[in-house]
Amino acid sequence: xxxxxxxxxxxxxxxxxxxxxxxxxxxxxxxxxxxxxxxxxxxxxxxxxxxxxxxxxxxxxxxxxxxxxxxxxxxxxxxxxxxxxxxxxxxxxxxxxxxxxxxxxxxxxxxxxxxxxxxxxxxx
Length: 124
Ligand SMILES: C[S@@+](CC[C@H](N)C(=O)[O-])C[C@H]1O[C@@H](n2cnc3c(N)ncnc32)[C@H](O)[C@@H]1O
Known about the structure:
The chain has 124 residues and is an alpha/beta fold. The chain has a single domain (1-12, 41-124), classed as Vaccinia Virus protein VP39 (Rossmann fold). The protein has helices at residues 3-16, 24-27, 29-36, 54-61, 74-86; strands at residues 44-48, 66-71, 92-95, 111-113. Strands 3-2-1-4 form a four-stranded parallel sheet, with helices on one face. Helix 1 runs parallel beside helix 5. It starts with a helix and ends in an 11-residue tail after the last strand. The relative contact order is 0.24. The model has no long low-confidence stretch (mean pLDDT 91).
């Protein structure tokens, strides 16, 4: 995992926290992607690059049976976990690199989402 990528998202994690649509893409792309995930009812979903959990929460609220959010940035997962702690939805979050994690059972998930799983680059 590129350390710069992790650090950049760790640093910017507080700015991603949201409980309602704020970003332009919350009004445009994410609703469109959410509609692609339908029917979600009862499905087991892996949300790769889940960030602070905005999309994961929507998947669970729409009826997914199980949602696991994975992100390489610890601060993103800390934000997602804090949201889960204050308003529990039963989502499981963990820090891991989407390119490297292993140990998944075949057919453990019905759907894998990777919403704006962008690798950021920075010289700072
Ligand atoms: C643009 S944010 C999008 C977050 C979330 N999916 C959303 O839609 O709000 C991209 C996220 O992908 C994560 N990410 C980038 N590369 C990753 C990788 N190799 N493995 C896991 N997460 C990664 C970043 O840490 C960051 O939280």
